[in-house]
Amino acid sequence: MELWFTERHTPNVKFSIKVDHQLYSGNSEFQRIDIFDSKEFGRFLTLDGYMMLTEKDEFIYHEMITHVPMAVHPCPKNVLVIGAGDGGVVRELTRYPSVEMIDLVEIDELVVEVCKKYLPTTACRFDDPRVNMYYEDGVKFIRRCEDMYDVIIVDSTDPFGPGEGLFTKEFYGSCFKALREDGIMVNQHESPFYDEDAAAMQRSHKRIVESFPISKVYQAHIPTYPSGHWLFGFASKKYHPTNDYNGTKWSMLGLKTRYYNPRLHIGAFALPNYVEELLKDVE
Amino acid sequence: MSELSQVNAPIYEALRKFRRMRVVPFDVPGHKRGRGNMELTEFLGEDCMNVDVNSMKPLDNLCHPVSVIRDAEDLAAEAFGAANVFFMVGGTTSAVQSMIMYACKEGDKIIMPRNVHRSAINALILTGAVPVYVNPDVNHQLGIALGMSVSQIEKAIEENPDAKAIMVNNPTYYGICSDLRRITELAHAHGMLVLVDEAHGTHFYFGENFPVTAMAAGADLASVSMHKSGGSLTQSSFLLMGKAINSDYMRQVVNLTQTTSASYLLLSSLDISRKRLALSGPEIFAQTVEMAEYARAEINDIGGYYAYSRELINGDSIYDFDVSKLSIYTLPIGLAGIEVYDLLRDEYDIQIEFGDIGNVLAYISVGDRKRDIERLISALAEIKRRFGKEGTGMLTQEYINPVVAETPRRAFYAKKRSLPLDEAAGNVCSEFVMCYPPGIPILAPGELITPEIIEYIKYAKEKGCQMTGTEDLNIERLNVLE
After folding, report:
1. Contacts of B191 (CB under 8 A, 6+ apart)
2. Active-site residue identified among A103, A155, A158, A197
3. Could you give the count of Cα atoms lying within 13 Å of B232 in the half-sphere of its Cβ?
4. Cβ contact (<8 Å) for B348 and A169?
5. Which DSSP string do the residues of A38-54 spell out, in sequence order?
6. What is the mean pLDDT of each run of 10 residues along chain B (482 residues)?
7. What's this model's pTM, rounded to 2 decimal places?
8. What percentage of chain A has pLDDT greater than the value 90?
9. Strand B354-355, strand B221-224: pairing
10. What is the DSSP letter of B403?
11. Residues A137, B370: C-beta atoms closer than 8 Å
12. Residue A150 catalytic?
């Protein structure tokens, strides 16, 4: 018997992982949640059938979405994380001693509960005393925040489904308002490769460019996401992601990482020509 | 045949049965179940094209219903608490016109608020009926026309005892209701029919704690836009009739202007939607109201905006308020309603129902999702943050009492000439000028053009209102009587 998880990356491309067994399946008010175990990727979480993370490659995503802004900001104290119910971003954030407060806003409490039970590699730091959990729509939560955060990390799902509000201009504008005068927002920025993903990527880039004075994009290689080539958005009120970056200072913190390092930080902002063009088209 | 009840949808059921029979079409429509127009079929879907069929024995005929359409109309009558109901495929416009054409012949008077939909004034052109306008009360802060006060109606009746009918909006576009029960009593005491434009009131019949419906208030006729809050396809409506109405004569009136090839897409959508509301109306509209109330509280919390509600009720010209409506006053943030309307679409990809000088209306229905409501609220907060100004120097005058110089019909058919907008003051207009939506005329045929009205038209144009009605599509010239 063979059991395969398959996700359609485009109408003409499928990506499959051989499943050893299913650990959990359930429906929340918002979405269907599944956890599988596999030989190649270990345990993995899917929402409405879309791959969210695998134990094998989650470190790439979580290190890149967290350490890039945390290393650019000279002294991040208050951090807001939106989405990220799997706990991966929180795990990375709690490694910074300078951080005083981590607000986590996740719309779906069941995702957190399921991850705590089945994905201990990521959902391992929710009990850190600096972490405050809010189970509500991020669009709503941030509407009332003003001049509060040094860093906002938008760890959204896709631009359709429960997370679609996190790709809108009203949301990015609210993030701008919620950040302090030297704040940084980083977001999951989709992929430039397949047409539909690229269009979504351009749409959100356009909206961020219109909302922040500095708006750059960086990349990482994430094998289980469509095409494997993934982007992050770096939007900032004051700091430039490479010009204002002090890699030595970050190295002094002594954080052990498997993907991120100061040389890669600079390199990640060097984009292929076709991606540069996609971005320029909407800037 | 077994007894029908609200779980049935006779037209829908007949169409499904018909589809299974795989009848070979040698009749119209010529697309022949879509096969003759594949691009259209691909766009609309095979299922849709398959039921775009013509009247025939198994499917009845809207012009002369004797079987499934008749059954569906009877079920609708039961659901709405009406003596009779007609399915309408020419929009609520055709229902409003039929009401007036039933009540009035040439020269007959009809009492109506001036803030009626253009379809009502169009009917006056068709019939030659003479309007007796009751100027609605105006809320000067919000700049919106309200309902009619009972004392104004009493006065109109006293001065025009020969009037044949009174027309009432229930509610207005903004959700405001007049005292329909009292108005109906007054009208009936003077032998006048009560015609109710309920284009925005479908949900009153099926939800709980809404303002009184025309049928419950004892009114004679009502036009209901099922396609607005009722969920049917655009252009499909109901005409409701009370006991005093001769429905067979009404059918003849309707058939004067109604198509003889009524769309079964529209008819089945009415049938299915009626069933749905009859079976689960209270839950559906409780959800709608909950979302509207939530949005109202959040928007008022932003500051600047005023999302109004039942606190406006004054016992007369705002006798009741439809809480499912999300009307928002925008002037305190220094932006005209139409500017907020445009910003929502251009900056935030959010399309709302309309914006006028001082207000916007977001249409809330059961089809809305909580997360979309959050987006709307956040977008309004962002518009205030990014574009908000001092709320001064804004034109607030919204409703201007018209001076009627000619009946709409005489003005419409009279000899006319075209004048530039700036030179038109002092003349009698022969055409409509209105913002659409809401489609309530600023000028109607037969009304005096005043400098105040010209200023208003220019301001509305400048702010970006979509103006319609005139022969000149750019609204730079007006047709006036010679």
Report:
1. none
2. A155
3. 33
4. yes
5. ETTTEEEEEETTEEEEE
6. 87 95 92 95 95 93 95 97 98 96 95 88 92 86 86 94 96 93 97 97 96 97 95 97 97 95 96 97 95 96 95 93 95 92 95 90 90 95 94 65 87 93 92 78 90 87 82 89 91
7. 0.89
8. 95
9. unpaired
10. -
11. yes
12. no
Residue type (1 letter), B223: S
Q: What pLDDT does B392 receive?
A: 65
Q: Which residue in B371, B372, B384 has the most chain A C-beta atoms within 10 A of its own C-beta, making it the best mutation to test that interface?
A: B371
Q: How far is CA A39 from CA A22, A42, B395, in A?
A: 12, 6, 69
Cis peptide before A272 (omega within 30 of 0): no
**What would the mean pLDDT of A82-97 be, rounded to a whole number?**
95
Please state, in angstroms and rounded to a whole number, the distance separating the CA atoms of residues B160 and B93. Answer: 26
Residue B441, C-beta contacts closer than 8 angstroms, at least 6 positions apart: B118, B121, B432, B433, B434, B469
| CA distance linking residue A214 with residue A192, whole number of Å | 20
Assigned token pair, B419: 């004048």
Dump pLDDT digits (tens) for A65-75. Answer: 999 999 999 99
Q: Which residues of B touch A170 (CB under 8 A)?
A: 348, 375, 378-379, 381-382
- In the chain, the amino acid numbered A129 is P
Chain B residue with CA closest to A160: the answer is B371
Residue A158: C-alpha distances to residues A90, B102, B331 (Å): 20, 56, 37
- Provide the CA B315 distance to its chain's centre, in angstroms: 24
Contacts of B381 in chain A (CB under 8 A): 143, 170, 174
Residue B193, min C-alpha distance to chain A (Å): 49
Q: Is A174 on the interface with B (CB under 8 A)?
A: yes
3-state secondary structure of A132: strand
Strand residue runs (E) in chain A: 3-10, 13-27, 32-38, 42-47, 50-54, 78-83, 101-105, 131-134, 149-155, 179-188, 214-221, 229-236
Whether residue B374 lies within 8 A of chain A, CB to CB, comes out as yes
Q: From CA A130, how far away is CA A80, in angstroms rounded?
A: 11
Q: How far, in Å, are A11, A177, B71, B350, B437 from residue B353 at the CA level?
A: 35, 28, 34, 10, 8
Please tell me if residue A170 touches chain B, with a CB cutoff of 8 Å.
yes
Beta carbons of A135 and A106 less than 8 angstroms apart: yes
pLDDT score recorded for residue B398: 60
For residue B231, give both structure tokens: 């969920």
Select the residue of A137, A168, A177 nearest B348 (Cβ to Cβ).
A168
Structure tokens at B27: 């009749």
CB contacts of B377 in chain A (<8 Å) are: 140, 143
Q: Do A170 and B378 touch (CB under 8 A)?
A: yes
| Complete DSSP assignment for A174-217 | HHHHHEEEEEEEEEE---SSSHHHHHHHHHHHHHHHHH-SEEEE
Backbone angles phi, psi at A248, to 5 degrees: -65, -45
Tokens of residue B289, six digits: 């109201």
ipTM: 0.87
Q: Which of residues 147-166 of A touch B (CB under 8 A)?
A: 162, 164-165
**Is residue A259 within 8 Å of A88, Cβ to Cβ?**
no
Q: What is the mean pLDDT of chain A?
A: 95
The shortest CB-CB distance from A170 to any of B298, B348, B370 is to: B348
User: Does the distance separating the beta carbons of A137 and B378 come in below 8 Å?
Assistant: no
* B156 alpha-carbon distance from chain centroid: 24
